Amino acid sequence: MHPMAVVAGELATPLTIITGVQLMFFAAVCAGAADPLAAMWGAAIAAACVPASVMFLAIENAVFLMAPTRDWATSMQGSFDPARVARLWLITMAKLLVFATVVGVVGGTVFLVHSMGAPWFAAGIVGLAPLFGVIAGLLMLCKVAFEKFNVTEDQPG
């Protein structure tokens, strides 16, 4: 099986569940909004849930494949594990860094295209290119990490 197919399979189930819950929440918010502008903003935020979820799940998957841990083994011992705390901090910082970079690049692209005279909608469509570029890069990172992952030892290669 191709490694990219395995990566897609690893991300499909959590992405479906997370996105489904997010979309149900935003559908309820949009349906209950008295102001059409608020409903439009809710729909725009809901549309951003899918790429944001893919980014965050890909980061989580890549970090696990590069430095695997089994949380259940340490939590059953009932002891404090500084390595686990450091790993969670690393994952959080990676997510924040990628998210801030993507918001800056996509927002900058959208603003630049809009300042050249394009309407906001067209500028938003152009802003999807760097967003999908980042997502493709993260998926490739997961693929490379999976190829180096030694399944028999549950350790990176």
Report on the structure:
- The protein has 157 residues and is mainly α.
- The protein has one domain (3-71, 83-156).
- Helices cover 82% and strands 3% of the residues.
- It has a two-stranded antiparallel sheet with strand order 1-2.
- Strand 1 and strand 2 (155-156) form a beta hairpin.
- Helix 1 runs antiparallel to helix 2 (36-66), helix 2 runs parallel beside helix 5 and helix 4 (82-115) runs antiparallel to helix 5.
- The two termini are 19 Å apart.
- The model has no long low-confidence stretch (mean pLDDT 84).
User: What Rg, in angstroms, do the CA atoms define?
Assistant: 19 Å
Report the portion of residues in β strands: under 5%
How would you classify the helix and strand content by structural class? mainly alpha
Number of helices: 5
Work out the number of β strands: 2
Main sheet? 2 strands, antiparallel
- pLDDT under 50 segments (min length 5)? none
Number of domains: 1
Q: Work out the helicity level.
A: over 70%
- H-E order: HHHHHEE
Shape descriptor: globular
Beginning-to-end CA distance, first to last residue: 19 Å
How confident is the prediction overall: mean pLDDT? Answer: 84
